[in-house]
Amino acid sequence: MSRVVSLYLPTWPTDRVRRADGDAAPPPDAPLVLVGHDGRRRAVLAADHAACAAGIRVGMTATQAQVLVPGLVLNDAQPEGDRDALERLAVWMLRRYAPIVAADPPDGLVMDTTGADHLHGGDAAMLAGMVERLAEAGVSARAAIADSWGAAHALARHVACPIHVSSPGESAREAAALPLVALRLPAALTTTLGTLGFERIGDLLAKPRAPLILRFGPELDRRLDQATGRMSEPINPVRPPEMIEVRRAFAEPIAAPETIARYIGKLVVRLCEALETKGTGARRLDLICARVDNHVQAVRVGLARPSRDVRRLTRLLCDKIETIEPGFGIDMLTLAAPIVAPMGPGQTVSLIDPATPDLSGLVDLLANRVGAHGLYRATPLQSDVPERAVGRLAPLAPACGTDWTGRWPRPSRLLTSPEMIQTVALLPDHPPVAFTWRGVRRRVARADGPERVFGEWWRRDAELEAVRDYFVVEDDAGERFWIYRAGDGEDPATGSHRWFLHGLFA
User: Fold this and answer.
1) Which CATH number do you get for residue 200?
2) Is the CB of residue 421 less than 8 Å from the CB of residue 501?
3) Which residues are registered as beta bridge partners of 5?
4) What is the rounded average pLDDT for all residues in the chain?
5) CA 177 → CA 144, 182, 201, 211, distances in Å?
6) Which residues of 209-241 are buried (b: 16+ CB within 10 A; e: fewer)?
């Protein structure tokens, strides 16, 4: 089932102006509106959040807006600049999130993310990442994912706060509860339907379709089918002119997996020739399959290092063939490299130095199966607090230059968060003689410690006096645990004096 994301940018024109002005832009809390000609009058065409909160609405005259809000900042609207910037944002999204992305003017983007959500941690994590990245860039956004463009468009503008994930198969039900303006109908038609008593999309879905088409034309029928997913709405993806891509059209549609694999291999050869001509290697590949029913499917694979190895790229793409649903057949295959990097000619292996094993092929294979977020290498960080002393590093990233140091042993498994335990112990410096963890009571046979860990006062004031006393304990069965007491055992300001289990030794 297709999964489509609609990204709604409610204040895109004013956000773009603020970004373009840089340091010369008005303060974020200063109301900003963009004005232009609406017929013979000069009217407000866009307003930011501060202006809307002050009572300004799109469509009112510029004079009314200035009278309503003293000190209002007025700039000239630039619709063409907004459209061009939206196209550039679509290209950025194409390289970062999905192979099929298009601008949805005047204030949105649409992208087909079918099969790409696992590369970003799932639907919710992917949408949250989009909104957060745009917010860091000064662009307000709301996002929704659904089974169709029409449903995602409606949910992003009327439900998302700031994101909304529609479960597969539930888009039609959720769209039925939305107001008629969510159907993307002409304003005059929406007003007419409202006059007749229709308030929600579900009100129209409950009526016989033929009289509605006869009265209001085919546009209403088309929008209803698009919102409920009964009719596909093709997305014309943005294609930057500098992107390297090759394609193959078929006189007779293809559908067999072995046929698709054969032509993938041919396209990879042509793409690698084009990459070699430009001295680059692919970091990401998109295979776009255009079906005869006007439905487009896409497969995306990423690489840890730039490559133009025909065998490796072909294998990565062919591993995804099972995710392609050819339907009645595929009449065009397009292979593109949206992200490339400089790559020099290959070097001859030294006859003296031992060859360094190349793990990039294995990393590529695993990352495209489980997602790049699920593949990482542990690296030490400069911190005495155990949970802050380890971080994640890309599998092939260079070492950070630090190492785990210290004379005290560390457990092979550290719990995600320390778990409270019930203990019997003598204060202030003695380890417990017994403890209960997850309902099982264990008697301590041996113990070593304490190792005192101080809080990092520069992070927050609460850690100014906080300490932990860690012990390595072994029970009667020979199992070893890493436990600590929050506090020094005497001063209540140093901690709660409760005991926690933080890790387990192998």
Assistant:
1) 3.30.70.270
2) yes
3) 111, 145
4) 88
5) 16, 10, 6, 22
6) eeebeeebeeebbbbbbbbbbeebbebebbeee
Contacts of 328 (CB under 8 A, 6+ apart): 253, 255, 291, 292, 293
User: What is the 8-class DSSP label of residue 324?
Assistant: -
E-state strands within 104-201: 108-112, 142-146, 163-165
Does residue 77 sit in the same domain as residue 152? Answer: yes
Report whether 275 contacts 89 (CB < 8 A): no
Task: For residue range 147-164, list pLDDT tens digits in order.
Answer: 999 999 999 999 999 999
Write out pLDDT tens, residues 232-241: 888 888 988 8
217 and 260 belong to one structural domain:
no
CA distances from 381 to 370, 399, 422, 484, 503 (A): 26, 11, 31, 21, 18
Task: Give the model's pLDDT for residue 271.
Answer: 95
- One-letter amino acid identity for 164? H
In 3-state terms, what secondary structure has residue 291? strand
Find residue 348's DSSP bridge partners: none
Q: Tell me if 44 sits within 8 A of 62, measured CB to CB.
A: yes
Spatial contact of 317 and 264, defined as CB atoms under 8 Å apart: yes
Q: Which of 380, 379, 388, 378 is nearest to 458 (CA)?
A: 388
Residue 3 shares a structural domain with residue 111? yes
Q: In this structure, how many other beta carbons lie within 10 angstroms of the beta carbon of residue 467? A: 20
In this structure, is residue 363 part of a structural domain? no
Asked if pLDDT for residue 371 goes beyond 80, the answer is no
**Residue 338, CA distances (Å) to 96, 99, 130, 335, 421 in order:** 9, 8, 18, 10, 52
Residue 269 belongs to domain spanning? 244-342
State the DSSP string of 63-97: HHHHHHSTT-EEEE--HHHHHHHHHHHHHHHHHHT
Question: Which 3 state secondary structure label does DSSP give 315?
Answer: helix
Domain boundary at 214, 238, 262, which? 238
Residues contacting residue 497 through CB under 8 Å, at least 6 positions apart: 427, 485, 486, 487, 489
pTM: 0.73
User: E strands along 9-138, which residues?
Assistant: 32-38, 41-47, 73-76, 100-103, 108-112
Give the position of tokens 């006189």: 251
Helix axes 310-318, 257-278, angle to 10 degrees: 140
